[in-house]
Specification:
The structure is a single chain. With 329 residues, the protein is α/β, with parallel strands linked by helices. The protein folds into 2 domains: 215 residues, Spore Coat Polysaccharide Biosynthesis Protein SpsA, Chain A (Alpha-Beta Complex), CATH 3.90.550; 94 residues, Rossmann fold (3-Layer(aba) Sandwich). The chain contains 12 helices and 13 strands. The strands form 2 sheets. It has an 8-stranded mixed β-sheet with strand order 3-2-1-4-7-6-8-5, with helices on both faces. A 5-stranded parallel β-sheet has the order 11-10-9-12-13, sandwiched between helices. Strand 12, helix 12 and strand 13 form a beta-alpha-beta unit. The longest helix is centred in the C-terminal third of the chain and has 19 residues. The radius of gyration is 21 Å and the shape is elongated. The termini are far apart. The relative contact order is 0.11.
């Protein structure tokens, strides 16, 4: 066993039918200066036995976390880790052999880089169009400025692809177990502190979509939970970037957009008015935009294709993303 591994791969698991495949994909990495910390989160199936079968491997550490929840399990793994870099891994997924090598090289090449991620290859049913669309979207976002500008659209990084400098956990805290999705909330917290993030520009992981994913079964991963988490950090971002704080104009006057913007109101943001395809009370047609020198626009329109159309329209009108507007859906 490497006494002081450069990388600690933290792999929490609970009733994980693909665990053996996930573990083997890490043990077969081309980069070998790592330890693999397996965290059994009170599994009730044969997962614990599968993990135990690898425990004699000189790079594997098996620990048990009885308090249920991925945040508790991930934090237990991080606390037990010895590496300078913490690589997250999920029990459903398969890491490509060069993953650790590529991410270590990226972090070592850029001292100001806090998180190295990568693209993903979708692994799941062809009929899961929504998740496939999401994967295709996040694979278009690789550079630090793109990640920052898209932080409120969706989670622009696949959490199990991350490799993080361990001191960031000391500086900004661990994963939190509350009403928010723990991985997205942690990402937004790092973003709020200006932590630079980039991606390897090729797939580092096969990302498996199953019916038992937490994003499908846990209430903390509902759309309302995501938009509630967004509002907390978006309001902080607006305080620092919106010269007209606390006033914003919201693009999207429909019921869903208004409900999402209500979360901003709870965080102290004032809605000056709405922008939409039809005029009405408190609503401007998009051809009658408020002057960019007098207003900041937050777009909550989600319809596929519409988001990019709104971005292109605003840029064509001279609005600069991050300075005059931000996309939040």
């Amino acid at each position: 066993m490497v006494d002081t591994p450069l990388v600690s791969v933290v792999l929490p698991f609970y009733n994980a039918p693909f665990l053996k495949e996930a573990i083997e994909s890490i043990l077969h990495q081309s980069f070998q200066n790592f330890e693999l910390v397996l965290v059994n989160n009170a599994s009730t199936d044969e997962s614990a036995e599968v993990a135990k079968s690898f425990a004699s491997h000189d790079r594997v550490i098996l620990i048990h976390e009885e308090q249920r929840g991925v945040a508790h399990a991930a934090n237990a793994g991080i606390r037990a880790s010895k590496g300078q870099f913490i690589a997250r891994m999920d029990a459903d997924d398969i890491a490509f052999p060069e993953r650790l090598k590529q991410q270590v090289e990226m972090l070592e090449a850029e001292d100001d880089l806090g998180v190295a991620s990568g693209l993903v290859e979708y692994l799941g049913p062809a009929e899961n169009k929504g998740f496939i669309h999401y994967v295709n979207w996040l694979n278009t976002i690789t550079e630090a400025d793109e990640i920052t500008l898209n932080q409120f659209v969706e989670f622009p990084i696949a959490n199990p692809t991350t490799m993080i400098r361990k001191p960031l956990f000391d500086s900004y805290g661990m994963f939190e177990d509350n009403e928010f999705p723990e991985d997205y909330a942690f990402f937004l917290r790092l973003q709020s502190h200006g932590v630079k993030m980039k991606k390897v520009d090729q797939p580092v992981l096969k990302w498996r979509d199953t019916e038992n994913r937490l994003t499908r079964t846990d209430k903390r991963y509902t759309q309302d939970a995501f938009f509630s988490a967004k509002a907390v950090y978006l309001s902080k971002w607006l305080k620092n970037h919106n010269p007209f704080h606390p006033q914003v104009w919201v693009w999207g006057a429909g019921r869903v957009s208004r409900r999402r913007s209500d979360y901003l109101k709870k965080e102290g943001i004032t809605i000056a008015g709405y922008i939409d395809v039809k005029e009405g009370e408190g609503i401007r047609h998009y051809d009658n935009l408020p002057d960019k020198e007098e207003a900041f626009v937050v777009s909550y329109v989600f319809n596929r294709g519409a988001r990019d159309e709104i971005r292109s329209f605003l840029i064509e009108k001279g609005y600069e993303e991050g300075e005059h507007f931000i996309l939040a859906s």
